[in-house]
Amino acid sequence: MNGWDQYNDSSRGFFESYTSIKSEVIFSDVMNYMPSSGDSCLDVGAGSGRDSAFLARRGCKVTAVEPSSLFRQKAIDFYNDVNINWIDDSLPHLNKVKELRLTYDFILMSAVWMHLPEKKRLESLKSTFALLKHNGVMILTLRLGPAEPERMIYKITTEEAIEKANLSGFHLKFINPIKEDGFKRGEVKWQILVLSKV
After folding, report:
1. Residue-wise burial string across 136-150, b where 16 or more C-beta atoms lie within 10 A, e elsewhere
2. What's the pLDDT score for residue 45?
3. Backbone angles phi, psi at 121, to 5 degrees
4. Calpha distance 107→30 (Å, rounded)
5. What is the torsional sign of CA 171, 176, 177, 183?
6. CATH number of the domain that 105 lies in?
7. Which of 19, 76, 120, 139 lies at a CB distance of 3.0 to 4.6 Å from 92, suitable for a disulfide?
8. Is-contact 170 125, C-beta < 8 A?
């Protein structure tokens, strides 16, 4: 079983939950690092497409990666008013994305890393580092809380993410304060890393 299988099984409920919170709220602490019009963006684990649509409406050229077929189709249908290139691919290797032979000004990996077992996390960051342009920025949002084996969610830490980001070649530009969960789950917190390729 993969971490994204659950999104096929419960796509409607997850989709409605995720689209209920605005990207502007989630990324309020890092809006000054968000890309502007004309930038090429890669949204890895794009899920409901909420953030991909947000980037596209800012005038960015967006490629969205989502391995859950049902989730991906719901996003395509829901955000049919914006131009997003959807790809069926997954971490840690992103082989289909790499086949495009493109690099990106900005990469987003939001609420994804906790679905990867420990042995795949470093490789996932190496893959995104290779796809990022020189002086490009990557935003990594981290779910900090207990593991949920039934949802293929693993316990991760900010310290582990920073260490593996450094090993992958990234430079840490910014880290925001730990924030409460948008769905009021008391045991779950969130933190955002802004990484760059210099």
Report:
1. bbbbbbbbbbeeeee
2. 94
3. -70, -45
4. 13
5. negative
6. 3.40.50.150
7. 120
8. yes
Cα–Cα separations (whole angstroms), residue 186 to 90, 98, 180, 190: 30, 38, 7, 11
- Find out whether 42 and 63 touch, Cβ atoms under 8 Å: yes
> For residue 143, what is the DSSP state?
E
Confirm whether 27 is domain-assigned.
Answer: no
Residue 163 pLDDT grade (very low, low, confident, very high; cuts 50, 70, 90)? very high
Tokens of 41: 């963006």
Query: Which residues make beta-bridge pairs with 148?
Result: 153
Q: In the prediction, which pLDDT does 14 show?
A: 62
How far apart, in whole angstroms, are the C-alpha atoms of residue 140 and residue 151? 20
Residue 79 — very low, low, confident or very high, per pLDDT cuts 50/70/90?
A: very high
d(CA 57, CA 72): 19
CB 113 within 8 A of CB 156: yes
Q: For residues 116 and 108, give the distance between their C-alpha atoms in angstroms, rounded to a whole number.
A: 16
162 part of a folded domain: yes
For the chain, what is the domain count?
A: 1
103 - beta bridge partners? none
The residues facing 153 across adjacent strands are 148
Whole-prediction pTM: 0.91
Q: Strands 84-87 and 61-65, how do they pair? A: parallel
Q: Look at residue 88 and tell me if it is in a domain.
A: yes
The residue range of the domain holding 159 is 5-12+40-196
